[in-house]
Design brief:
D-Maltodextrin-Binding Protein, domain 2, about 25% strand, alpha/beta, Solute-binding protein family 3/N-terminal domain-containing protein, signal, binds arginine, about 250 residues
Amino acid sequence: MEGIIMKKIITLIMASVLSVSLFAEKLYVGTNAEFVPYEYLENGKLTGFDVELMELIGQKAGYEIVWKDMSFDGLIPALQTGKIDAIIAGMSQTTERQKAVDFSNPYLYFKSEHLVLVNNKSSLNNKEELKNKIVGVQLGSLQEEFATKLGANVRPYNSFLGALMDLENNKIDGVIIADKTGYEYLKSMKTLKTLDKITDNYPGASIALKKGSLEKVEKINKILENLKNTDEYNNLVIKYFPEKNN
Ligand code: ARG
């Protein structure tokens, strides 16, 4: 008798789990998977800190995450036109972007640094000398702003790889890139070196939502707040940012 009741309970639980996943609200999330360790492709599969964090948020908020990988500069327009519902792409909250989207609170709590890369043969001594020099950046990125501030002749690229290859071939004078991503590329691109660093004062990476999505922003902020200092969250940081864990 008890066995039958148990079976019924289990069937009920399984049915409800199934229906939750069948009827979960789909959240289309845009990213740009060329930003190690935030989001990148590993054997063709999307992975990274942001990807795992967003899946976790989805679980807790009852969203089924549907990923859309696209170019970085295409993310905000895609959000504005409703092709996606959210962006998680290591995106910093700049005042310019705040006009276009609603941001969650930052989901990483350390300051980000950026590398100024040059060719090994470069005669430049520091980032200030990039004034009037050609500096490659990813189109629409924070680094584009830094390069402009340095007075450089800014050359935007669709991908970091394109910029770095031009740097290897001496077609441009420097590239500004987020530290972790830069270190990854430096491992294989032996003709490049770090000239200098830039620390950014923007609040850390945040999730972007369409303007006016107050309810979603609050829901996500609450989940982020609850995740702070939990093992679930800390383990993700250790996994993807081992060096930040001091
Ligand atoms: N943090 C920088 C920014 O907000 C770079 C982000 C690049 N992210 C990416 N997935 N490519 O502009």
